[in-house]
Design a protein that fits this description.
seven-stranded parallel sheet, 265 residues, single chain
């Protein structure tokens, strides 16, 4: 018996690195999972393909957000779990960032979280009618607390998601809907690999292997995380064991943000 038996979940960015791991974990825990993304790509096991359902969703589009939730309503009438994992990263300072890039960052990372949450709420209320709670999990970042160089727009969007998470937890807690945010550090995803090869703070003329090792070494645990590490925390926050957890920003970064960087001698 899995921790999510009988539950219905929707994961935005569900075919990406972290989103795919969350879909996989929920599927193995017995949930009916909708993987919402721009296209149905990515490497999936046959078991996940059989249990998860793809739904096209551009999180910046309100009509598509409404359509995705309508599909869930028609097929199940409720939504127990929403995970807003879709996100993008632009490796630039504000001087280098165009207005279109700035707006695109906020459209995906912040407005996308707003739109999917807004149109999921009626379905999540339906899931709490029997006295159980529903779980809404946003994706912030440790970059919403402290900043990496060359990620100005990304840092700004994650700070906004943190504030939005707290506000939603206050507004919808009385309805039985718990709202939390997970704030990852360096996680081994395609986004991280892009950071290593990019012209921003991941560059500097070093080889990929050198950059990867440098990132590992800066962590107290001397490694960066995996999508499965994130999926483990998501699964717990979505479970009944986390019934009293709401309004919190859960940092998962291998201790990176706990240390004073200039003291690493």
């Amino acid at each position: 018996m899995g921790t999510q038996d009988g539950k219905v979940a929707l994961v935005t960015g569900g075919r990406g690195g972290i989103g795919r791991a969350i879909v996989d974990r929920f599927s193995r825990e017995g949930a009916i999972v909708y993987a919402a993304d721009l296209n149905e790509s990515g490497s999936l096991t046959e078991a996940v393909k059989a249990r998860s359902r793809f739904v096209r969703l551009d999180v910046t589009s309100e009509p598509e957000a409404i359509a995705a939730m309508e599909k869930v309503r028609e097929e199940h009438g409720k939504l127990d779990i929403l995970v807003n994992a879709a996100g993008i990263e632009i490796e630039k300072t504000i001087e280098e960032t165009s207005l279109d890039e700035w707006n695109r960052s906020f459209a995906v990372n912040v407005t996308g979280t707003f739109l999917t949450s807004k149109h999921a709420l009626p379905l999540m209320r339906a899931a709490t009618k029997d006295g159980s709670s529903a779980s809404l999990i946003n994706f912030g970042s440790y970059d919403g607390f402290i900043a990496d160089p060359g990620l100005a727009a990304y840092c700004a969007t994650k700070g906004a998601v943190h504030a939005l998470t707290r506000a939603m937890a206050c507004d919808h807690g009385p309805e039985g809907i718990r709202v939390n945010a997970i704030c990852p550090g360096y996680i081994d995803t395609p986004m991280l690999q892009s950071f290593f090869t990019g012209d921003g703070s991941g560059g500097g003329g070093k080889t990929i292997d050198q950059l990867q090792q440098a990132v590992r070494d800066v962590h107290p645990m001397r490694t960066y995380g995996t999508p499965e590490d994130i999926a483990n925390l998501v699964n717990w926050l979505a479970s009944d064991e986390a019934r009293y957890a709401s309004g919190q920003l859960w940092v998962l970064d291998g201790g990176l943000s706990a240390q004073v960087q200039q003291m690493r001698l």
